[in-house]
Amino acid sequence: MAGEKEKVVAAAGGCCLRPFSCEQGLLSRPDGSAAFLQGDTSVLAGLYGPAEVKGSKELPDRAVLEVLLRPKVGLPGVIERSREQLLRQTCEAVVLGVLHPRTAITLVLQVLSDAGSLLSCCINAACMGLLDAGLPLSSLFCGVTCALDPNGAIILDPTTRQEQEARAILTFAIDSPERKVLMTTTKGSCSVEEGPCFPP
Amino acid sequence: MAAITMRLPAVRRAVGPAAPRGGEKHLVAPGDTITTDTGYMRGHGTYVEEEKLIASVAGAVERVNKLVCVRALKARYNGEVGDIVVGRITEVQQKRWKVETNSRLDSVLLLSSVNLPGGELRRRSAEDELAMRDYLQEGDLISAEVQSVFSDGAVSLHTRSLKYGKLAQGVLVQVSPSLVKRQKTHFHDLPCGASVILGNNGFIWIHPTLEHKDEEAGGFTTNLEPVPLSDREVISRLRNCIVALVNQKLMLFDTSILYCYEASLPHQIKDILKPEVEEEIVLETRQRLLDLEG
After folding, report:
1. Sequence spans of domains, chain A
2. Which is higher by pLDDT, A188 or A7?
């Protein structure tokens, strides 16, 4: 079944996303919460803030954004830390932190299942969570993962299998009004010419 | 054996465009341009970039003369002076109680802001501090008014009137604060036989109408007499009607609750929660409210 689906996706040129869905406001304790599903990958996001922050961490002119990413099994490791940094930089570019100085905004992400394109699913869940919490944002943003297979064809929203066979995996965070790129991260190697032909 | 109804999850149908609506709202998401006219003052939920007014939260645009602001669709309760709130005591601290009111920080009820039994006016002594738990314990529900707001957003409450105080027997419904309409009074005695307190923080308290108001009590004695079955049925029906209105995202105020109650009379109380009955009742309520306006 999974193999058939991949063949259909490859035949379509790989430029279609898996069915995705989102649910907001499903947790009662956090100020904002969202669950984002991309195919079989799902991430749950919970947002707390703006709340009080301990003295040493507070910034006098803006809010401090903290991101915690919890994997499905095991303790958070180095990969989770690096993804947390990427998410934090993306969210800081978008959240209007100057409106809430000396406060902390905490974003907690829990990976429910991972079937490829995990980072873009986390980015999407973070955006939906920020929206649900009513925090001031300069724009909405979304995340998309592209995989370059050994032939040079581009596959959007790859599954785990496609990610393993790919030569390079690129993740982008794109903002809403002018489709500008907020963040990119690359795993693997690809030439610079192939780069700019991504998000149209 | 009681009969059970089971339903499988189905795709929710959006409220159709043919349903009567009272005026179109301008809905925006963060990053959407509200207007390029520079004559407007910007309010909450907006920011200015390159002479354009852009929304920063997702919600409906509200315009009052020259002030444009965006009210978020769903937010925690933000206290404002003069609001009526219904809250639950979570902690008893040294000279105050901590009250949970569906806001980001717990609200504070100072010992000096409550009426002592007997209506006395005197300085609070050490005995009063020790006897705090006799007045209000953890888990009690109270109705109060917002006295002031601290700089971090926490709200300070007071119950310095006989109509506020500990709540006795009734039903609590928790809804989103944005669905409670701001009115002159939030204590309503409905003609159907029950009373309702619409807290601005989204906590709604339905209780049987008190026959006589106890003047000396000062709001701390609880009436624990058994409530008759007819009153209980009215209260259950009101609670189901409020849940139906909330599911269909209608604003809650005394007229809408009353119309919904009257529209639900042909159905059994437990049927009101079924989706198709809910839609029918709320459609009728919406129609009657629009007829009332224009």
Report:
1. 16-139
2. A188
As given in the structure block, the two tokens for residue A94 are: 């978008």
* B153 → chain A, closest CA residue: A51
Q: Which of B74, B48, B75, B70 is nearest to B60 (CA)?
A: B70
Q: Which of A131, A175, A178 to mutate against chain B (most B CBs within 10 Å)?
A: A131
Alpha-carbon distance A18 to nearest alpha carbon in chain B (angstroms):
19
DSSP-derived secondary structure for B245-272: HHHTTPPB-HHHHHHHHHHHTTS-GGGG
Residue type (1 letter), B266 = P
Phi, psi of B211 (to 5 degrees): -70, -40
Dihedral pair phi/psi, residue B114, rounded to 5°: -110, 155
* Chain A residues whose beta carbon lies within 8 Å of the beta carbon of residue B29: 131, 140, 176
Q: Name which CATH class applies to A16-139.
A: alpha beta
> pLDDT of B248-275, one tens digit each?
888 899 999 999 999 999 999 888 888 8
Name the strand (E) or helix (H) holding B126.
helix B126-130
Residue B21 has pLDDT above 70, yes or no: no
Q: Is the pLDDT of residue A200 over 60?
A: no
pLDDT tens for residues A58-72?
888 899 999 999 999
